[in-house]
Amino acid sequence: MRLLLVEDEPEIQSFVKQSLVEAGYEVDTAESGNAAIQLASQYAYHGLIIDLGLPDQDGIDLILQLRGSGISSPVLILSARRSVDDRVKGLEQGGDDYLTKPFAVAELLARLRNLLRRNLATSEEATRLRVLDLELDFISRRASRGGEVLNLSPQEFVLLAYLCRHAGRVVTRSMLLSEVWGMRIQPNTNVVDVHVYRLRGKVDTEGHEPLIKTLRGIGYVLKDH
Amino acid sequence: MSSKTTNPIMYSAAWRISLWATLAFAIGTMFVFAMLHRFVANDIQRRSDAWLSGEVAVLADVAGRTPKDRLYGRVVGEVAELASREVPDKLRSNSNENDSVFFLQAGDDGTLKLWVGAGDGVPNLAAIRARKFISDVPYDLNVKGFNHPFRIASVRLDDGSHIYLGLSERDELRVLRNLRYRFFCLWLLIVLFGSVIVFFVTRRMLGYVREITEAASRIGQSDLSSRVPISKRNDEVGHLALTLNRMLDRIESSMHQLHTITEALAHDLRSPLTAIRGKLEIVLAGDLKMEQSEPIVSAIDELDRLTEFLNASLDVAEAKADALRLSLSEVDLDRTIRAMIDLYEPCMSEKGLRMNLHSAGPVFIAADAALLHRVIANLLDNELNHLPASCTVSIKLGTSEDAAMLIVEDDGPGFASEIGLHMFEQRVKGRDSKGHGLGLTFVEAVVRAHGGSVTASNRSEGGALLSISWPRETGEEIEAPHSPTHLNR
């Protein structure tokens, strides 16, 4: 998949590009809004990563311009701005997700995958989901492992469902907070960890292979192979 | 203008001012008129007295010199002449001209010797005799059968008899009554007209003031870039608007400066932080041994702590300066808190803490949802970080007339006494606190930015109590009251 990275800070550009390449993407880079528009009109990108603070124009304006010229690929906004309204503005005007600097590379990759997948496939919302021997039924909202029904609270079911939908991919704490609980907060306590820990206690019971893995400093991943 | 007032007109300052002005004007003019009226009445009286005295002297002279048999004729002639000459008001037509003047001569034994006038003169004589004393200056006399008093002048003749000349005060009184009547009509007109003018002028003036007030409060709440309306006139109200606008210019520019500084600071610190973190992560992703990766992981942890601190500091700085940009929406506080409790409960019970919620159903407030989440998260983080095991956190949600009350209390050790009054100041924290000392400062600043208030205290039975009062949306109907729920965890 081909991505366009629009970022003027060389330091950041280089490590983001390196991470993306290592993750298996083809990456073009642009240092300014004009260069980005030129590139975007030449090639069809699967996704764009755009920094809001560009030397020649505002990132939001760039997104508007791109959308205006018919480019509908998902956009991940990088921002050093803090205020919420800027971010929301970015989202409303065609950006699909945002990250504030500084960010974890894993978070960037996780959100990007999420975005690309959201865009590529699928409005067909499965009623059942299988990951290895884990089975989720979205109608009865029950989960079972190896045929044994798991006794999950509704909240735990939502959490497990999110992990299963992103099976095999890193899910960060802030993704869980915003997607499962609908909050953009950064608690300075381990509230999310305790939820995952409890879930793990119910899913990865003795005699089963542990599925939910913790990646230190990054987040979690549900094994799918 | 009046469409904006919610107060009835009786409570407006314009109404009070015009009422007092009218009252003062009415009393003042009434007083001046009373003085003038008195002066005019006295003057008329004095003139008619002088005339009466003169005439009675003439008549006495005539009576003294004229023989008795011819006296009557002479006097009738004189009186008729007087009546026709001296009665000023020619308009009257329905009354007898003759009854305006009478002449009476009474003997010293009280008998009626000569009478010229309307009627037989008996009531006149009776009235005169009813007076106990005889005076040389003219006096008022009420006579039975006549509606108006007479002004009487008398003189004593050499033969011991008295002659009396009476002039009806009817015309004099009518003049004065006319004067009063006309004055009263004009006075009423002027007072009404004046009060209406005063009312509208003051209302117009105060209307400007109110417009300025409304605009200023609107600006204070939301939009710093707009200005109060300026009237073209160069008066006090115009000056007020100009002064306010100049003040707003300065506030806006310093606010703008603050934004620029925090924005620049944030940006300049964040870019290198991002680069450092990214590079460390890339190193970490390579093939490293456990002991090599350990310092890198802890460096990333430190960076994240630094970032968190940077964010919190900048947020608090902005919130403290009332420079938070709020995107308000209607939020159900009850639902938000339940979601928060769902999030925090496992962590709490992991630490051996219990949580319970007392709430009587939905409470709608106007809030920036993201900031509200962070405020509640801050409060619960605080409890998590400071409470020893087996304590209980109680969250109570209630409403007063115009505010939602959120109370978070616990039965732990309470706030350290040395924090005391400085609870909400930056970097103030308990001795054992691991945080930045920014949590409660942020809470207080955000709540204040929404127009609410926070108080913190230690409960008398032990434990900390934080009470947040958040203004409710006015006019918001609360949904059908739910039965109070008691959520025990």
UniProtKB/TrEMBL annotation, chain A:
Residues 126-224 form the OmpR/PhoB-type domain. GO terms for biological process: regulation of DNA-templated transcription. The modification 4-aspartylphosphate is found at D51. Keywords: DNA-binding, Phosphoprotein, Transcription, Transcription regulation, Two-component regulatory system. InterPro entries: CheY-like_superfamily, OmpR/PhoB-type_DNA-bd, Sig_transdc_resp-reg_receiver, WalR-like, WH-like_DNA-bd_sf. Residues 126-224 bind DNA. GO terms for molecular function: phosphorelay response regulator activity; transcription cis-regulatory region binding. Residues 2-116 form the Response regulatory domain. It comes from the Bacteria. It holds the Pfam family Response_reg. GO terms for cellular component: cytosol; protein-DNA complex. CDD domains: trans_reg_C (cd00383). PANTHER family: REGULATOR OF RPOS, TWO-COMPONENT RESPONSE REGULATOR. This is DNA-binding response regulator. It comes from Edaphobacter dinghuensis. The lineage of its organism: Bacteria, Pseudomonadati, Acidobacteriota, Terriglobia, Terriglobales.
